[in-house]
Amino acid sequence: MNVKIDTKEKFHVITLPGPQIPATMTEELSNSLLSYLQNDVKNVVLKLNEIAGMDILVAETLVKVQQRFYEKNASFIICEINPDLDKFLEDHHLLELMNTTPTESEAWDIVQMEEIERELLDSDDFELEG
């Protein structure tokens, strides 16, 4: 899968090429995204502005990938969802399970807020133990 990756200090912005993501790409997409959990910078902003449609299996996998990121204390934000894809996800009741923002800038803000939250929670744990 040929993706565009823009690495920032706290996260990676990954833009998927469109216009469709077929079911045959599900495993490759999942493995590719989950591999970021091995990096020092684990947070991912997934930009879907070029994707007009995807197989339901791909959409369900994105929900599972997002859950995995949060289990590992990393952020996974989906932004700039194409209107056709937005309707598809809404119709299949998946949009409400995803952490989404209308713009990439808002996704950056969420990643940064979640990072601060994690740092505060870590320092609270330290104070409780000490």
* CATH class descriptor name: Alpha Beta
Biggest β-sheet: strands ordered side by side in the sheet: 1-2-4-6-7
Task: Kindly report the average pLDDT value.
Answer: 93
**What is the CA-based Rg, rounded?**
15 Å
Considering the protein shown, what is the CATH homologous superfamily?
A: STAS domain
Gross morphology: globular
* Annotated CATH topology: Transcription Regulator spoIIAA
> Main β-sheet: number of strands, strand sense, barrel status?
5 strands, mixed
CATH architectural type: 2-Layer Sandwich
Q: How many distinct domains?
A: 1
* Number of DSSP strand runs: 7
* Unreliable runs: none
Q: What is the end-to-end distance?
A: 47 Å
How many separate helices? 4
Specify the helix fraction band. 40-55%
Order of helices and strands: EEEHEEHEHEH
Structural class: alpha/beta
Which percent band covers the strand fraction? 15-25%
What does this structure look like?
This protein has about 130 residues and is an alpha/beta fold. It has a single domain (about 5-130), classed as 2-Layer Sandwich (Transcription Regulator spoIIAA). It is built from four helices and seven strands. It has helices at about 25-35, 55-70, 85-90, 105-130; strands at about 5, 10-15, 20, 45, 55, 75-80, 100. A five-stranded mixed beta sheet has the order 1-2-4-6-7. A two-stranded parallel sheet has the order 3-5. Helix 3 (about 85-90) links the parallel strand 6 and strand 7. The chain is globular, with a radius of gyration of 15 Å. It starts with a strand and ends with a helix. The model has no long low-confidence stretch (mean pLDDT about 95).
